[in-house]
Design goal:
The protein is mainly alpha-helical. It has helices at about 25-35, 35-55, 65-100, 120-170; strands at about 1-5, 15-20, 110, 115. The strands form two sheets. It has a two-stranded antiparallel ribbon with strand order 1-2. Strands 3-4 form a two-stranded antiparallel sheet.
Length: about 180
């Protein structure tokens, strides 16, 4: 039986909640058998359980920090998934097509001194920024993500598993030996 202590930020009361401790050996075995994928789900589940337990007895408010952690996990997973999908499936042809059809912005350059002959207006600034993004930055970032997408996913899910499995220890009641 695990006992957690939550302090409400609104009314400053402290609530003590208990939760039955699950079979740790079973979760460890499932984590090994699924090559760590179970730890990600277990991390989500642990934070969700803490959020459900964190209801204040006086005012009924739940721990907002745990809610924001859950939202961060879900939104971050969607964003990382979309980023990998975009740069692995959609973007390679699009980046090559956009970069090859991109024209250098029409600027008045003094090539001897490497300076502009006249000030740029707002539209020309956006043309230069767009050119640098499409021709210079996007292919480099795209190739990095394309080459390293398994490691990006492993790092993200490893972060979720680590934080999700550490979160209960932040609220666990310390008992003297």
């Amino acid at each position: 039986m695990d006992t957690y202590v939550f302090r409400c930020r609104r009314c400053r009361s402290t609530s003590v909640e208990s939760s039955s401790s699950s079979l740790q050996n079973l979760h460890l075995l499932l984590g090994i058998l699924t090559l760590g994928a179970w730890f990600v789900l277990r991390g989500f589940e642990r934070v969700w359980t803490l959020y459900r337990l964190s209801r204040c007895e006086d005012c009924g408010r739940r721990n907002r920090w745990l809610l924001s952690l859950l939202v961060f996990f879900v939104m971050g997973t969607l964003e990382v998934g979309w980023l990998v999908y975009y740069f692995v499936e959609v973007a390679p042809e699009k980046i090559v097509r956009d970069a090859s059809s991109m024209d250098f912005p029409d600027l008045q350059l003094d090539l001897e001194n490497m300076e502009l002959k006249e000030e740029l207006d707002r539209e020309q600034y956006w043309e230069v920024i767009n050119y640098i993004l499409v021709v210079g930055i996007l292919p480099g970032v795209g190739s990095f993500i394309y080459d390293n997408w398994p490691f990006i996913l492993l790092a993200w899910f490893g972060l979720i598993a680590l934080v999700g499995l550490m979160a209960p220890s932040w609220y666990l009641k310390k008992t003297p030996l």
